């Protein structure tokens, strides 16, 4: 036994055993580092895949097709029901659990979702429009047809599907406690959605018509008949920072019309510039507001 000048007596360990233990720990560390099994390496690989730049599909006819790579964007609109909200165009993004993201280099299911101010196509916000029967690849998506939304998250051998189910006491969205939207690796009726025309007075007339790309639509869940909704005023702390909640719920105004929080756009790529999206495309001059003196006819000036 040896006397510790600053406390009670302690037993001195064997110096050779301590050196051997340190050597074993260092050897184990180097082996894991060489194999890429360190937690920081796994987390880095996951982040690199989710942030990997992607290329969206370019629509030649202006419509959405099965097999197209698109971004799901909730268009910018003022949120009158919340004092503090996230503005701008918000894209639907993969959001892994913050703790699990530091422990694994893969996406674990069920995986969460959120909305972020990301207008660049990357692994975590690039979805693929899929047909439930897998036989309609390349065909035009039409209003009222079932479709699935898959995402790889930047991985080459991974495919997760946007899904939802009825709310229960044990399963609901984190902030609003409404119907949860999540990603799973199984294709079922819970992962089927339909595009609906936003104007209810013209909804029946547009049934069966092609769904235009980069235009406002409604995305409804087939099993529960709830609309995909962006909660701009409900913030989430995620692996990528402060983002907002997405859920499945239909909000109607006093005229029984869906509110802007239920509006979505299937955004495609910009043919004029690589890695760009159609939202970056400047509006034609005919759509830009003109000054009164420009709008007046030559005889009136």
Q: Summary?
A:
The protein has helices spanning 15-35, 39-50, 98-101, 203-206, 292-295, and strands at residues 69-74, 90-95, 112-116, 127-130, 146-151, 160-164, 181-184, 193-196, 216-221, 228-238, 241-248, 263-267.
Number of strands: 12
User: What is the radius of gyration?
Assistant: 26 Å
Percent range for β-strand residues: 15-25%
Q: Roughly what percent helix? A: 10-25%
Secondary-structure-derived class:
alpha+beta
Calculate the mean pLDDT score and round it.
84
> Helix count?
5
Terminal-residue CA separation? 105 Å
Largest sheet: 6 strands, antiparallel, barrel
Q: Order of strands across the widest beta sheet?
A: 1-4-5-8-9-12
The stretches of 5 or more residues where confidence is low (pLDDT under 50) are 287-301
Shape estimate: globular
Give me the strand/helix succession. HHEEHEEEEEEHEEEEH
Keywords:
single chain; two-stranded antiparallel ribbon; 301 residues; 15% helix; 5 helices; 12 strands; disordered C terminus; 6-stranded antiparallel barrel
Any chance you could write out the topology, listing elements then pairs?
Elements: H1 15-35, H2 39-50, E1 69-74, E2 90-95, H3 98-101, E3 112-116, E4 127-130, E5 146-151, E6 160-164, E7 181-184, E8 193-196, H4 203-206, E9 216-221, E10 228-238, E11 241-248, E12 263-267, H5 292-295
Antiparallel strand pairs: 1-2, 1-4, 1-12, 2-3, 4-5, 5-6, 5-8, 6-7, 8-9, 9-12, 10-11
Give your account of this protein's structure.
The chain is an alpha+beta fold and 301 residues long. It has 5 helices and 12 strands. It has helices at 15-35, 39-50, 98-101, 203-206, 292-295; strands at residues 69-74, 90-95, 112-116, 127-130, 146-151, 160-164, 181-184, 193-196, 216-221, 228-238, 241-248, 263-267. The strands form 2 sheets. It has a 6-stranded antiparallel beta barrel. The protein has a two-stranded antiparallel ribbon with strand order 10-11. The radius of gyration is 26 Å and the shape is globular. Mean pLDDT is 84; it is low at 287-301.
């Amino acid at each position: 036994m040896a006397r510790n000048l600053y406390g009670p007596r302690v037993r001195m360990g064997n110096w050779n055993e301590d050196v051997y233990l340190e050597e074993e720990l260092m050897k184990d560390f180097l082996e894991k580092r060489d194999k890429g099994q360190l937690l920081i390496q796994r987390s880095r690989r996951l982040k690199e895949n989710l942030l990997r730049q992607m290329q969206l599909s370019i629509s030649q006819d202006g419509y959405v097709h099965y097999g197209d790579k698109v971004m799901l964007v909730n268009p910018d609109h003022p949120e009158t029901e919340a004092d503090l909200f996230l503005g701008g165009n918000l894209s639907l993004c993969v959001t892994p659990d913050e703790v699990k993201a530091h422990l694994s280099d893969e996406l674990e299911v069920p995986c969460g979702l959120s909305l972020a101010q990301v207008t660049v196509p990357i692994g975590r916000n690039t979805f693929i429009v899929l047909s439930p029967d897998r036989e309609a690849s390349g065909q035009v998506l039409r209003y009222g047809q079932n479709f699935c939304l898959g995402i790889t998250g930047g991985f080459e051998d991974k495919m997760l599907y946007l899904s939802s189910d009825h709310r229960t006491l044990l399963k609901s969205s984190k902030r609003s406690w409404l119907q949860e939207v999540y990603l799973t690796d199984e294709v079922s009726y819970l992962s089927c959605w339909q595009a609906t025309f936003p104007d209810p007075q013209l909804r029946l007339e547009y049934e069966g018509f092609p769904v235009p790309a980069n235009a406002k639509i409604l995305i409804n869940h087939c099993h529960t008949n709830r609309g995909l909704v962006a909660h701009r005023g409900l913030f989430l702390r995620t692996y990528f920072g402060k983002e907002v909640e997405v859920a499945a719920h239909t909000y109607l105004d006093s005229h029984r019309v869906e509110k802007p929080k239920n509006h979505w756009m299937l955004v495609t790529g910009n043919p004029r510039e690589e890695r760009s999206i159609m939202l970056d495309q400047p509006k034609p001059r005919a759509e830009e507001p003109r000054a009164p003196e420009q709008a007046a006819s030559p005889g009136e000036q």
